[in-house]
Design a protein that fits this description.
The protein is α/β, with parallel strands linked by helices. The protein contains 12 helices and 9 strands. Methylates the class 1 translation termination release factors RF1/PrfA and RF2/PrfB on the glutamine residue of the universally conserved GGQ motif.
Length: 281
């Protein structure tokens, strides 16, 4: 029996992944093939058109993805803005919607020469790394509590010159209070009864990075806002990601704190209210 071609293998992989409920079966099939071949996804499409054979090991990776293991855990990398990040078990896989939050932090940092920026609960280091990468001269810090996530962040952030601190976002950097120009965060915020539907999230993202504490998931977002207030200079910029349904609650808690001006809800690229920004009085 003749060996399968790459085109046939991709078609079969897409069929298996679709049957398993993977949201983007063809794209994932191509990315898995790209990982096996050490090529770009674009190059994989070209090879498929030219009759290239199925690469060894592709079927095994497709089976793993069909079990809803995150694509990023299989390939060991996630893409965020201009960065390729190392990720795997124990760290939250960065999401495209968070790129909007990072953009607002980057824009704020660019308005201040030598801006001092901190990412609270950095996870893989996606936001902190993007600020360091896109704002030359910025003094960037990142805080992470989880030992596993810290290890991934260290690998990603060390080449970018970010100061990584192992600590709790509620109490970290007490020696730096009132010195930051920008505080940015994507803290855990899911309520305890809102278990994510996607197996990739529910079974593979660490609980420490998902659930915000309290009946409403707002315990850690509240703590993040409190830490932002103590860390920022007067006039400093704060932006925090949250669930769409929490937008009103976050604006209310910032207004009640009495130390914020220009409180504004920030929408992601799909128009969902996924972050809130404010200026420290």
């Amino acid at each position: 029996m003749a060996a399968a071609s790459l085109a046939e293998a991709l078609a079969e992989a897409a069929r298996l992944l679709a049957a398993a409920g993977v949201p983007s079966p063809r794209v994932d099939a191509e990315l898995l093939a790209a990982h096996v071949l050490g090529e770009s996804a674009g190059r994989v499409r070209v090879l498929a058109l030219t009759g290239a054979p199925e690469p060894e090991g592709l079927a095994e990776l497709v089976s793993e993805r069909a079990r809803r293991v995150p694509l990023q855990h299989i390939t060991g990398k996630a893409y965020f803005r201009h960065l390729e990040l190392a990720v795997g078990p124990g760290v939250f896989v960065p999401r495209p919607e968070t790129e909007t939050v990072a953009q607002h932090a980057i824009d704020a940092a660019r308005r201040v020469a030598g801006a001092k920026v901190v990412d609270l609960g950095t996870g893989s280091g996606a936001i902190a790394g993007s600020v360091a990468d896109e704002v030359p001269g910025a003094d960037v810090y990142a805080v992470e509590l989880s030992g596993l996530a810290y290890a991934w962040a260290e690998r990603n952030l060390q080449p970018l010159g970010v100061t990584l601190v192992r600590g709790d976002l509620r109490t970290a950097l007490s020696e730096h209070e009132g010195t930051f120009d920008v505080v940015v965060s994507n803290p855990p915020y899911i309520p305890p009864d809102a278990v994510p539907v996607d197996p990739e999230v529910a079974e593979h993202d660490p609980e420490l990075a998902l659930y915000g504490g309290g009946v409403d998931g707002m315990e850690l977002p509240r703590a993040t806002a409190d830490s932002a207030a103590r860390l920022l200079k007067p006039g400093g910029y704060f932006i925090m990601e949250h669930a769409e349904v929490q937008a009103a609650a976050v604006s209310k808690l910032l207004a009640a704190a009495g130390c914020w001006n220009d409180i504004a809800t920030v929408s992601d690229l799909t128009g969902r209210e996924r972050a809130t920004a404010a200026i420290r009085r």
